[in-house]
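Sample pair:
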Amino acid sequence: MTTRDPAMTLPPAPPPSSATATMRANRATNTGPEVALRRELHARGCRYRLGVRLVLPARAVRPDVTFRKQRVAVFVDGCFWHSCPTHGRKPSDPTGYWAAKLGRNRDRDDAVNRALDEAGWSVIRIWEHEPVAEAADRVIAALQTSASGGHQRVATLETRESRR
């Protein structure tokens, strides 16, 4: 039997409300920003894979867009769920559930970034509010760096430390 880290345990879920129903309705894949990025990348001639599960020594990871040959993993992060420093909003929640949930999401993002980086992958994190053309430019730059034998560390608009 495995034991869970108490720091990773969430407080009890808040009682069902209209906000809970709204949160459950949010999509995990094929979000508007993700589809827009994929269309732009495809229009520019990039071919990629979706739903690829990468089994790494530290953990298994499923990027939103994967370029296996170039070893580039792309994640399109929602501002609320991943605590964007520009647009992420802190929900008012007396139970502390959402603060713990969002903190755990940030910690998981950091762990995923480290695991991919240690395995030799370039990681591109794109915020949902980022202009699609600029996001595609960043992905293509990472692909070109990887094609030339380089390895690009985690690339985001803001550093992960600024997200806290």
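The CA atoms of residues 123 and 154 lie 5 Å apart.
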